[in-house]
Amino acid sequence: MKLIKKVSAGVLLSFGSIFLMLTAVEILTYNQKPTPQEQQKAADTMIGGLIFGLPAVAYGGWLVWSLRKQHQKLLSDRLQSTFYRLLEEKSGTISVLSFAKEAQISGEEAKQYLDVKAKEFNATFDVNPQGGVYYHFHI
Question: Which CATH number is 90-139 given?
Answer without folding.
Answer: 1.10.10
